[in-house]
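Before the break, one more example. Copy the sequence into your notebook; we will annotate it together after we see the structure.
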Amino acid sequence: QLLPIATEQLQWMPHVNPKLHMPLIKFIYWSIRQLDTVIQHATMRSTMRRLGEDIFKGIVSKGNPHSSSEQSTESKSKSTAFFKSSCMSLRFLSTLIVLKTVTQVDYLAQAFDSLRIDLKTDEGKALFLEYQCVPVVLSHLKVSSRGLLSSALDGLLQMTMESGSLQPFLEACSNESFFQTCSVLLRSSKLDIPVLEKLCVLLQKLSRIKSNKKMFELFGLHQMFQELHRTINPDHTFLCINLNSILLNLGLLRSSSLASSLST
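Here is what the structure looks like once it is written out:
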């Protein structure tokens, strides 16, 4: 019930102190995340789409209707940027809202591009963890979203770079939801090699965590990787290296076998 009101409040943002922008955007984000477990009616979906579009495009106001005509003239065409804000924390959170609310592929592609760039920084990685972003990105890891799948994985791959955020990120991915999503992707015959490589990099990092072995087994990933290892074209060197490493970490490949396969 509060989300439509918050959406209306966005229209006033050009006329309020910029310090108030972040609290409103943060409230909207966590409200949307709470709706993940709720069946959304058509009216709510419409509100969400409008919200996402406003966040993406920014708000342009033609003047404050509660001010005098003289003040209104002065404040004409004030604007507030959210997704395109120069403030990283506001931009980052706005990007997540866009990813959660809009359906237009071009908007989503720009959002993932913005996310990938911000995640190259330590601040961006910290924000990713603070706002518990794994489920947000995970919802876009679908074979049916082929145009966005690679972009979504690019964002996750930025989080696998060596940093203080790496271990907390891997822990955030170490759950049934993440592994089930990966399992569905790997069972698809439509994955191209570059996407498969990115997915294997992620899973190679996760295979280092011993407790994740049960996750690989639960969703049959260990068998899929064994089959891939047996059938993959050895010319795909990078993919082969990651497959070997995953199987080695899972105790399904001896180090001597790894050495011989890399030397051939």
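The first strand starts at residue 59 and ends at 61. The beta strands are 59-61, 78-80. Try to locate both features in your own notes.
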